[in-house]
């Protein structure tokens, strides 16, 4: 599989609106765990294969997913999430419709992250997670006082570490012995409205979503 992970996927208003659909967000998220067909995704999400096929084509049209070459048949295609940084520009959310689309996507994405963490907790309670994996996994939260610049520096440091690990495991598809798709959730934000908010820097606001290589 050729990597496009270091390429940038800049979303315009049309692409953002295309993603602002709960089922499409769930399809995109599901494909980050590995390739699947419309039928497989329909069974996973409780939808008809006709519905998933339609929404998969819309995601592919806007560059969120792609067909897996040399796999599947003309009737049953395999799809995978593209490995690119997704950048949402300020222009894309400069209109009411753009902001509404981002809100729909953002709410569904956050809901999926909570569901994923809750699903892991349930597996742990049922002793379904093998010992080495249970010991390696971590859930943590911490609170500290910092400036906006310090928070930006921390996030940049963490992103550099994550990027290095993406480079290390690049090319894996989750079928290698002893491997599994791993989800790392990162959120860092002020817990209350800062007393004085500096002027936002010019440029693009960035949201990153990467598929498991």
TrEMBL record:
Signal peptide: none annotated. Keywords: DNA-binding, Transcription, Transcription regulation. InterPro entries: ArsR-like_HTH, HTH_ArsR_DNA-bd_dom, HTH_MetalResp_TranReg, WH-like_DNA-bd_sf, WH_DNA-bd_sf. Residues 192-213 are annotated as: Disordered. Residues 14-95 form the HTH arsR-type domain. Pfam families: HTH_20. GO terms for molecular function: DNA binding; DNA-binding transcription factor activity. Residues 194-206 have a biased composition (Low complexity). Gene3D superfamilies: Winged helix-like DNA-binding domain superfamily/Winged helix DNA-binding domain (1.10.10.10). It comes from the Bacteria. This is Helix-turn-helix protein. It comes from Georgenia muralis.
